[in-house]
Amino acid sequence: MNRPGLSTLRERIDGDVLAPGDEGYEGARGVWNAMVDRRPRLIVRCAGPEDVVAAVSYGRDNDLEIGVRCGGHSVIGHAVPADGLMIDLTPLGRVRVDPRRRRALVQGGALLGALDRAAQPYGLATTAGNVSHTGVGGLTLGGGMGWLARQYGLSCDNVISFEVVTAAGRTVRADAAQNPELYWGLRGGGGNFGVVTEFDFRLHPVAEQTVVANLWFTLEDALDALRGWRDLAPAVPRAATLTAWVGDVDGEPRVSIGFVWAGLPRGAAEPAAPAALEAELRSLGTPIAEHISEPSYLELQRMDDDIEGHAYRRYWKGHYFRELPDAAIEAFILRGTRDGHGEGLPYASLQAYGGAIGDIPDAATAFSHRDTFVEFVAAAKWKDPAEDESRITAARRFGASLAPYASGAYVNALTDEGRAGVRRAYSPNKLARLTTLKNIWDPDNVFHLNHNIAPGEPA
Ligand SMILES: Cc1cc2nc3c(=O)[nH]c(=O)nc-3n(C[C@H](O)[C@H](O)[C@H](O)COP(=O)(O)OP(=O)(O)OC[C@H]3O[C@@H](n4cnc5c(N)ncnc54)[C@H](O)[C@@H]3O)c2cc1C
Questions:
Q1: Is 344 exposed, middle or buried, given 0-12, 13-18 or 19+ CB atoms closer than 10 A?
Q2: 252-261/240-249 β-pairing
Q3: Within 120-238, where are the H helices?
Q4: What residues form DSSP beta bridges with 217?
């Protein structure tokens, strides 16, 4: 076969084609996790959907491994292929809001912050994650959990239509009427079926102001507080998402319980409701400190941006829990150790699901585990490469201590679990349906740098 040369690619592309040594190459290959230090042979910075078509075709014709980059927050760094072709969507970051129809057209490389910033001047938003420099692309295709999800569903539940460049280099639409099975698979199936160049999102009116409450406990008092926090959950209004955290504060292990209240438009919220929930939390024990704040919706969406910033080495372990027995709470507090104390232990969070997430029938989307009660993520963050092994070992130990209670895993929180992780993210019947879909849209597994649905016989 006559393989198209690099000059042909450069002619076809409106954006930039970067090779090692080119200006901008080093910056473009870096992603959120500083452990990811791979060098693509080429980085195509796409200026439009046609550039994506050209890049996919070039990669296929030249047998280059293809990685797709939006926000670069895949913890394992799936966007960056070693010696392959990185399709960099970051120049495709535009968001257009139609406030009358309550819709947002979001390009495939946009960050969550761009979506929130474009919609909020109209008092609108859709479910987006908790850190504004995360990409709309990866987050939405895997599900998309955020502070509005208990009211309005996951990010993927709010996508009305996708524009997709397929492995064959064709541009297609996927929605309820056109390619409905692909539409099903793109809502939770990750980047397995093509490169999404545009998302059409449904928007909702949301309050300008939110409430964030955290009550802090010593390890000794944490078990009772967390048990009470768990037992409160069924009665918590959908505007609130229960949260909990374990980690070190000023060198001491601490546990917090709390909630984020977001979503109801001005006038719709019962003003006393967040205060009543705060009082219920206070009644669960004797916190050593508490912090209640009332950030704007945009401030809320940026609140963890610095603590979850770039340039650190990272490793995660995640689980879903349908129930949280006392033994799981104990394991959460102990962080994979005997007594909850130790150097360089990961911190971890619990975030409640429920509400509108579970209203949607399980079969309606590829996303699985809609009956999740809480999501658990243990996160290790460090700077010194010499600590890589000990930090990763500690996070694995923590994750393993909770594994007996887990009901599955969130595909977007997987790291290096490989095929076993994919089997935890999707139920067997979903995996079979996803495999059938993969056979149709990407039989050669062009898009395999992801939590991969391998083509083949549906299991
Ligand atoms: C700091 C931080 C905070 C997070 N917070 C949340 C949260 O609140 N809620 C939540 O649900 N998740 C959260 N996550 C997990 C997050 O959803 C995943 O890490 C997700 O993969 C990030 O997407 P990205 O576009 O930033 O990453 P990238 O690394 O750019 O992309 C990840 C993968 O997604 C696919 N992909 C991305 N864009 C496209 C596209 N346009 N078309 C086709 N495929 C694409 C590709 O397979 C790519 O390899 C968080 C992650 C981090 C690191």
A1: middle
A2: antiparallel
A3: 136-142, 149-152, 180-186, 219-232
A4: 255
- Whether residue 322 contacts residue 407, with contact meaning beta carbons closer than 8 Å, is answered with yes
Q: Would you state the structure tokens that stand for residue 430, as one six-digit string?
A: 């979903």
Pocket-testing residue among 35, 89, 134, 154, ligand 1, by greatest number of atoms within 8 A of Cβ: 134
Query: CATH 3.30.465.10 region(s) of the chain?
Result: 95-205+431-441
**In the chain, which residues fall in CATH 3.30.43.10?**
12-88
Count CB neighbours of 304 within 10 A: 14
- Cβ(382)–Cβ(344) below 8 Å: yes
Amino acid at residue number 28: A
> What would be the CATH architecture of the domain defined by 12-88?
2-Layer Sandwich (3.30)
Output the CATH code of domain 211-418.
3.40.462.20
Q: What is the pLDDT of residues 324-373, one digit of tens each?
A: 999 999 999 999 999 999 999 999 999 999 999 999 999 999 999 999 99
Can you give the pTM of this predicted structure? Answer: 0.97
Number of H helices and E strands in the chain, helices first, is 15, 18
At residue 415 the predicted structure's pLDDT band, cuts being 50, 70 and 90, is very high
Which of 76, 139, 310, 367 is the best mutation target for the ligand 1 pocket, counting ligand atoms within 8 Å of the beta carbon and taking the most? 139
The span from the CA of 287 to the CA of 296, in Å, is: 26
Which residue's entry shows tokens 């001047």? 121
Cβ of residue 167 lying under 6 Å from some atom of ligand 1: no
Q: What separation in Å is there between the alpha carbon of 78 and the centre of ligand 1?
A: 10
Q: Using 50, 70 and 90 to split pLDDT, how confident is the model at 458?
A: confident
Q: What is the CA angle 188-29-130, rounded to 5?
A: 40
Check if the beta carbon of residue 166 is closer than 8 Å to that of residue 193: yes
pLDDT digits (tens, 9 = 90+) for 140-161: 999 999 999 999 999 999 999 9
CATH 3.40.462.20 domain position(s) in the chain: 211-418
For ligand 1, atom 43, which residue shows the shortest CA distance?
A: 195
As a CATH number, domain 95-205+431-441 is 3.30.465.10
Assess whether the C-beta atom of 84 lies below 6 angstroms from ligand 1. no
258 contacts 217 by C-beta, under 8 angstroms: no
> Among positive and negative, which fits the CA dihedral 202, 129, 131, 419?
negative
pLDDT digits (tens, 9 = 90+) for 168-179: 999 999 999 999
Closest CA to 319 of 379, 260, 365: 379
**What is the maximal distance between C-alpha atoms in the chain?**
73
Nearest atom within ligand 1 for CA of residue 129:
8
